[in-house]
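Treating backbone geometry as a discrete language has practical consequences that deserve illustration. The amino acid sequence and the backbone structure tokens for this protein are reproduced below.
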Amino acid sequence: MSENAVETEEMEVPEINDELESLLIQVIEEAQGKMEQGEVFPPFTATVMGDKLFTETHGGTIDECFESARDAVLNVAGARMYAFCYDGYIDTDEGDKDAIIAEGGMAGDEQAVVVGMMYDADENGAVAGFSDEIVYIAESENFLADVAPATQPAAEDESLEEGDAPQEA
């Protein structure tokens, strides 16, 4: 069921932009909803341009999927931020844990952040339960690192809901 592995180290949770945090939570909750209904969700990106949200699914091998996600984000002219969500696993002290993982970054920031929500699967691979919290995992490559930050829209995007701050893994 896992498509990608993210290795972690003990580290302090960095400051995460409130809008980016909200977007990361939103994509994880969308994936969680699909999994709770017994669906397999394809990896997808959610890219914010101004006050609009563009989503796109990605497929292929792991490398092809990441390249497709990077291209999709970079092809949104004026992108302010993005989230890339996929099914993967987190390497923890107790071994590998299945997780919904979301990577996201802001235009012009050097690094993206990776957060996740762990879940348990039964012997048939069906989801048996989700963690109560989203955890910070690591920093990663920011697809928008070389893109100049766009100006923010005058009004806040109401489709990006507020959520709880990620906790450290």
User: Anything to note?
Assistant: Residues 18-36 form the longest helix (19 residues). The beta strands are 4-6, 44-49, 52-57, 79-92, 95-106, 111-121, 127-130, 135-141, 167-168.
